[in-house]
Amino acid sequence: MLTLDIFGFRALWSPYFLIALILILVGYFLITVKFRTRFASSEPLTKKQAIFFSVGIALLYTIKGSPIDLLGHITFYTHMIQMAFLYLIIPPIIIVGIPQWIWRAIINAPVIKHIFKFFTKPIIALILFNGFFSLYHIPLVFDVIKTDFFLHALYTGFLFIMSGFMWWPLINQLPEQQTLSGLKKVGYIFADGVLLTPACALIIFNEVPMYVTFSDPQAWAQALELCVPASTLAGLTLSGPEMFTTMSLLEDQRLGGVLMKVIQEVVYGTILAKVFFAWYQEEQEQALEVEMEVKMKMKEAELNPQPVE
């Protein structure tokens, strides 16, 4: 069985992508720390924000720049792990990691303001993300995108932005952007899980391998060109994923669907628990405030009894 080392350092570790992410991280700290005072309404960077953004960038490189990305073109289950991290885990981490004053500057920009307001409407965000996610995994669409560098970059980048819009109503910390109450957030999470289920079910319960880019040697080799230089592939003789794994195509496909659904349930379950307890705590605090107000009024009535006529 072959190892991934045959594809070379560039394919395994994506050095240009790493440099780009390092520049983004450096720019983030320059804006939020060194040059922060040059921006109006800026606020000090918190430790939580710095950690979250750094972790988000590190995860982004791990998923799209490390050998995991290459393995995602060889085995379908790794591809689905990539999808789960790219669209269900990394976006909320990055959203929390960007300071509120930067978000306000971005979403209040003249052109972006109306676009952002439209695409972050809960129903629209849910339908668009889950719709385009499901569309991507239709075999005809998947195989075309997987074999075209520009289509793949365009579609996955667009889906990443849509996932950010989908997460925004749940995760954002801006008071003026809170469009969902506690119970509505619970319903939003449930709806998100339901809308993602058909795509996973189609993959899990299909009786045959669905994707040509994993079953046909020529299409599979063409898909590899997305992350492996053509010059490297020209010197290799490859017949398909079976050269790197003992798992059958159908087992690989079903495992991918199961992993996607499991990761989705874990992520949504975690967010659901957080939202529910936050809502419960808020309700308790409101009830306590009402109780205190009633007690104060009763005490005032005792101290200042009304004269009997």
Automatic annotation (TrEMBL):
Keywords from the UniProt entry: Cell membrane, Membrane, Transmembrane, Transmembrane helix
Record's subcellular location: Cell membrane
Membrane topology: Multi-pass membrane protein
Recorded coiled-coil stretches: none
Chain ranges passing through the membrane: 12-31, 51-72, 84-103, 123-142, 149-168, 188-205
GO cellular component, one term: plasma membrane
Designated name of the protein: Cytochrome c oxidase assembly factor CtaG
Species in which this protein is naturally found: Bacillus aquiflavi
Taxonomic path: Bacteria, Bacillati, Bacillota, Bacilli, Bacillales
Gene from which this protein is expressed: ctaG
